Amino acid sequence: MNDDLPLNWESTYAIVRQLMTLYATVPIDTVGLQQLMDWIIALPGFVDDPALANESILQAILREWYEESETI
Q1: Does the pLDDT at position 8 exceed 70?
Q2: Most buried one in 8, 15, 37, 39, CB count within 10 A?
Q3: DSSP assignment, residue 46?
Q4: pTM above the 0.85 mark?
């Protein structure tokens, strides 16, 4: 994982990889959208405008996180 690259809402895979590292013990199905957004905007290197987030983006990130966790 390269923390030098800036993260934005389109960096779904990079966001998910960082979330998987930081919150490895958290059951994904217990994560709410507001909590997810708070975690994402707190990630090192996240540079995008939090106001651009919407339910669709956050659900896509959750879906990818779930899919990635199933492949491990």
Answers
A1: yes
A2: 15
A3: B
A4: yes
